[in-house]
Amino acid sequence: MGAELTLDPRLEKARFCAMLRAVRITCPICKTVLENAPEDHEPRPFCSARCKLVDLGNWLNESYRIPTGERPEGNEDDFGPS
Question: What is the DSSP annotation of 17-56?
């Protein structure tokens, strides 16, 4: 007969909790993947303070746009003088 593997439920719970704490972060700026990053990783969701500042700069320079259903001002579908 083969030996049965019995696991301590407390050990299994500790392993499961450790898996939940192991955070994987993919930086939206440089695409660096951080495996097992701490839950309280300061520049999250970025990999570093530098990428966090690059993202802020993109917002401030209006590189990012939030789509709206509004038309730009001055474009009233005028095709010529009336």
Answer: HHHHH-EEEE-TTT--EEEEE-TT-TTTTSSSHHHHHHHH
The rounded distance, in Å, linking the Cα atoms of 66 and 41 is 27
| Whole-angstrom distance, CA of residue 55 vs CA of residue 44 | 12
Is there a cis peptide before residue 81, judged by omega within 30 degrees of 0? no
34-50 residue pLDDT tens = 998 888 888 989 999 99
Q: For residue 60, give both structure tokens.
A: 């401030």
Q: What six digits make up the tokens of 71?
A: 């038309």
Burial zone of 39 (CB within 10 Å; 0-12 exposed, 13-18 middle, 19+ buried): exposed
Decide which of 3.40.50.20, 2.60.40.10, 3.30.50.10, 3.40.50.300 is the CATH code for 18-60: 3.30.50.10
